[in-house]
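Minutes, project check-in

Agenda point 3 was the complex the collaborators sent over. CS summarized: two entities, 786 residues total, and the question is how they sit relative to each other. Sequences were read into the notes so everyone works from the same version.
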Amino acid sequence: MEEVTWIELLSRQRDVVSRHRATTSTVTIGRAYDNDLVLDDPHVAAHHLRLCRDGDGAWFAEDLGSVNGISVKGVRHERVVLDGDITLQVGQVGVRVRTAGYAVAAEAPLARTQTYWPVALISLSLVFTLMLFQQWLGETGEPKLIGYLTPLLLFAILAAIWTSAWSVLSRIFTGSARYGLHLSIFSIGLLLYTLCAQASEVTAFALSWTALATYTYVVGWFAFAAICFAHLRALGRVQIPLKVICVIALAALGITTESLQQSDQRATSGQSVTLRRLEPPVLRIAHAQAQTTFFTSAANLRNTLDKAREKAPSGNESGNDE
Amino acid sequence: MTDRSLHSWRKPLGALMLWLACAVAGGVASAQSLPQPATAQSIGSPSSASAELSATAERIYASTRPSLLQVRTLVEAAGRQSSVGSGFLVSADGLAITNYHVVSQYALEPKTYRLEFARPDGTHGALSLLAIDIADDLAVVRLEGADLPHMDFDPVAVAGELPRGERIYAMGNPLDLGFTIVEGTYNGLVERSYNERVQFTGAINPGMSGGPAVTDSGKVVGINVAKRLDGELVSFLVPGNKAVALLELARKNAPLTLAQTREVIDRQMLAWQSGFYKAIEGKGFRTTTFGPYQAPESAAPWFDCWARTNVEQTPKPRAQMDSSSCNSQGSLFIAEDLQSGHVELTHTYVRSGELNAFQFAAFLSRYYGLASLAPSWSAKRMTQSECHEDFVAPSDVAGAPVLRAVWCARAYRDFAGVYDVAVTTVTQDRKNEALVSRLTMQGVSYDDALTLSKRVMGAIAWKK
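CS then shared the predicted structure for the full assembly.
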């Protein structure tokens, strides 16, 4: 009986591109049309290599004098003894030889793919509701439907575009789009961020920590980085450290840019930071200071101002008369 | 320049005072292109009385004209005038009086500008700056010369005894058109101004600043300084006695250097504001009621108070807002982009039956957000502002609400010890009612600002 051998051609990503059934004990591979197997790769010689089966039935590969040669894991060889797990690098193509006796992995049970749609829809509607609720709480004029619909529409479009982009990446790298998963990552992330931002605004007022309200954008960038990380992780649990570094770098860049922008804006407008939003008086937790304490702190600002005064902006002629 | 009609006149937020140096740039420049031949309005044939009057004016003009000066500020590099005003000689050896605001560009940037005079006979030459008085907007300058024609002060006016209604004549060079004389009425000191100013009912125009206003005997009563843009013929003079006093000081002065000018301005600003804040304290405060609250307002006569409400707005606002704002009349001119000495105290009572507690707080945030200092800021003149905010408990817990308060201050770069300060408070006791109070002080010493703010904040309370 003639033993069947399969010669598999692999892409650069090591996916099987095609499989060829070989029944002879010698197979020649190259770009020329007199080969048994023709490879359309410019880095492959006309007659690149020959696969032979020796007397024991083991396959080996021989270089036929090509420029790029044949290599295994980056090491070039004139002659390589093959088994089913060795991939030969021929030009940009991978070549693998498997005989009929090659043991395949056991059958994987058909897992029920988890559906993320309920999570996605629930969290998305929570985000929508929260946004509308926030807007309603800040409404000081006559509420208008258009005022609520427009941001809702913009937000829906943003969510769709963002999720689609990640789904496309997911389709490329994992083979399935997983729209529901990416949508739920986005909406849960946004939900948490909205809650955090809201809490920090209220806390800033309640505890009288102005800085907290000022630096809410830091939370925002971390939330953004976390959402990106979750999306990346969903694309495959490989190279996690690299992904972590990437999103941290992204957050750092965002925070730096925004800090610079804010300080620059303060320098051009001359304005200082104060609380942007007041909350109902019942939310106050901080102990009210005595008037004398308040005015002592106010008096202490004088030193800061006098120091700032010494640092005259460049180009001022005040240096000449001192 | 403002088209407000007299009957519907309301106090706008900006200053309405026009200092009358004639700047070449800006809105005033367009006024310069105005001189077109008089339109068909006939002047009318003079009656015998007006013939007599015009004879007086003619005599005064003829006798005082040689003592008048046009004071020009020129850009050193270009040699062209950047602003013009007027002045007049007061001694045979070349001392002359003008307004500080006429020479302010030169005083603060002597490297960029130079000062020149032009006399009615066409001669011109350099001026040196000997003394300034920013509180009264005066400057003493000197030109080289001897046996110059000059003017004297009217002793009756210097003693403050000139009767109201006296006919006086303002002279100067309006809009750089040539030396003119304007007839008008002396109306005594402005009662509601902290700075002593004579109200002159007559047309004085940009370019006449620093020129003299004289009696029919040609003696100086005061110095042209400003006019109100929102009225007709409401003009102001600096009383002559201020000039007499400054002249005494200046007589032995050498020309001021920049460092000296800055030091003098600094000293004068601090002295002026110290007097002003003491006077405010001295006049006391009256208590005004705003819904369930009461708040202090200065009883000093030189505060101009106006009420505003949003009730008539359409669509009907969901929170009603009634405010009462008191401005100190007048301010100090330091430079074109630095006018100081202004005090404003505004109380706004906000209430709403429609908004919930969060919405009402959001409504108040708009006013609280304005807490930091006014946007007229230049990095050249001021430091960035610094703020401190916190909840403040009243000293009398039973009688007054807790406040959310923010103190913002910035320092003047050129003048040590002078600051702009704004203090805003919002009452924190009810969910749909609040009193927002805002005290703004320009060109104030830190201690005086603290004192007045303590005074005001301490008096915000529940209605007794």
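Noted in discussion: Chain B is about 20% helix and 35% strand.
Follow-up: revisit at the next meeting once the mutant set is ready.
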